[in-house]
Amino acid sequence: MKKLLLTLVLCAFAMVGFAQKGEMTAGAQFIVGAGQGICNPGLGAKFSYSITDPWRLAASFDYGFQTEGVATWDINVDAHYQFFFGKGFRVYPLAGFTLLGYHVPEIKKSNSTCVGMNIGGGAQYDINDSWAVFTEVKGQLVHKHGSRFVWGIGGSYKF
């Protein structure tokens, strides 16, 4: 499963690298993740590329700060189908894959990594031609660890 997810992530980055046109954005986000009795805030980085007008691929990395002795991280590759409303506002459902890790710093070799899928949605508002703000809500359905809810809010720069 880990090899499959790594292959999917590499394919997503390869598609972005070889594409000739489309909107690209890079941004940062503040997240709150909750699940399995743990609720931790964190920070993340996100990159997205619009393949066509409605379709967009997004790759992100999030780190959840240590709460109740547990820190989390995740790598996500999601597909968005965007619905445009007026000038600069869009909403989208999303679906994708996640690689989620838990870490207990006080205990050596306490890492746990699992593969899952993302389902959720988001909204984006374009402030101007270069900057946008967004919010996203997604459920991460993870093998062996149940599910986790992640909410993020952030900003991005458009290339």
Key terms for this structure?
159 residues, mainly beta, Porin, 8-stranded antiparallel barrel, 1 helix, globular
Polypeptide structure, described:
The chain has 159 residues and is mainly β. The chain has a single domain (2-158), classed as Porin (Beta Barrel), CATH 2.40.160. Helix content is 11%, strand content 68%. The chain has one helix and nine strands, in the order αβββββββββ. It has an eight-stranded antiparallel β-barrel. Strand 7 and strand 8 form a beta hairpin. The longest helix has 17 residues, at 2-18.
- What oligomeric state do these chains adopt? single chain
Strand line-up of the largest beta sheet: 1-2-3-4-6-7-8-9
User: Can you identify the CATH class?
Assistant: Mainly Beta
The fold-level CATH name is Porin
The structural class is: mainly beta
Tally the structural domains: 1
pLDDT < 50 stretches: none
Which range does the strand content fall in?
A: over 45%
Give the CA-CA distance, first to last residue.
33 Å
Radius of gyration over C-alpha positions, nearest whole angstrom: 16 Å
Tally of contiguous helical segments: 1
* Helix fraction by DSSP (H/I, runs of at least 4): 10-25%
- What is the CATH architecture descriptor? Beta Barrel
Average pLDDT rating: 88
Order of helices and strands: HEEEEEEEEE
Q: Count the strands?
A: 9
Bulk shape:
globular
